[in-house]
Specification:
Distance between the termini: 44 Å
Structural class: alpha/beta
Number of strands: 9
Oligomer: single chain
Order of helices and strands: EHEHEHEHEHHEHHEHEHEH
CATH topology of the largest domain: Rossmann fold
Strand content: 15-25%
Largest sheet: 5 strands, parallel
Strand order of the largest sheet: 4-3-1-2-9
Shape: globular
Bound molecules: D-glutamic acid
């Protein structure tokens, strides 16, 4: 089957986190049409069993790939990727299915034996996909893996700064930041939304690594390889969610706009 250039690129996450990836995609390929799906009724994925995450991911992907006939699927969620990427690739062999993993490689190679802190969900850190990645860099860096239960829930509830978030971060990070790390891997797409608070909780200058930009570049590469790049734009962005909160889509659109504007400001600097 051939796909229309105008078919959307689907972006899937458990909630708001994938917006950090959508921002990178739109920045790189503003001509494309996108459909963003946040499974907010089921978030957080990262504290469920692997089987539950897999079932949810396959179900939401079916909607995006079969009902919406998307030309590619970006799994903008480290947790869903670690639980279901192989099954998704088997189910949709003729379409690009792009997953995410914590950006450990650039972090581990960033200096001589750096101390690296990997923040991610419990599911991502215990799955074999990440364990294999970890094995490849173990000798090259001191790597501390820190599961962050509670963080995604807080972000989904709209808390992106303030004392409640600072208290949770300080609880989670204590014991992992003395001596301070050289680099921090944000191994969950929600975490870049609270990057400022994470930096403040660490309290010393640190390099932050995240997977969004690389995922966007890989998506562009795959679309080009398949001759599926839409070159005339701008494209449209549609937001969908499983949340019953009537405000969810407005909140997602607002966060996305803000992130896009921040990014444009950064490029102008
Ligand atoms: N944003 C997702 C990730 O990158 C996970 C969030 C969740 O726990 O639902 O892992």
């Amino acid at each position: 089957m051939t796909y229309d250039l105008n078919a959307p690129v689907a972006v899937l996450d458990s909630g708001l986190g994938g917006l950090t990836v959508l921002t990178e995609l739109v920045r790189l390929m503003p001509e494309e049409n996108y459909i963003y799906y946040g499974d907010a009724a089921q978030a957080p994925y990262g504290e469920k069993t692997t089987e539950q995450v897999r079932a949810l991911t396959l179900d939401r992907a079916k909607l995006l790939m079969e009902d919406c006939q998307s030309k590619a699927l970006v799994v903008a969620c480290n947790t869903a990727t670690s639980a279901a990427i192989q099954q998704l690739r088997r189910l949709y062999p003729d379409r690009s299915v792009i997953g995410m993993e914590p950006a450990l490689k650039p972090a581990a190679l960033s200096g001589y034996h750096p101390k690296i802190l990997v923040l991610a969900t419990p599911v991502t850190l215990r799955e074999s996909k990440f364990r294999r990645l970890l094995d490849s860099y173990t000798g090259q860096a001191e790597i501390i893996c820190l599961p962050c239960p509670g963080l995604v829930e807080m972000i989904e509830s709209g808390v992106l700064e303030g004392p409640e978030l600072d208290a949770l971060l300080s609880d989670l990070l204590q014991g992992a930041i003395t001596p301070p790390p050289d680099g921090v891997v944000l191994g969950c797409t929600h975490y870049p939304l609270i990057e400022k608070s994470i930096r403040a909780a660490i309290g010393s200058p640190v390099e932050i690594f995240q997977g969004g930009p690389g995922t966007a570049r890989e998506t562009r590469r795959r679309l080009e390889e398949q001759g599926l790049r839409r070159m005339i734009g701008p494209g449209q962005i549609t937001f969908q969610t499983s949340s019953t909160d009537p405000e969810w889509i407005r909140r997602a659109q607002h966060l996305f706009q803000e992130a896009l504007e921040d990014e444009q400001d950064d490029t102008l600097k």
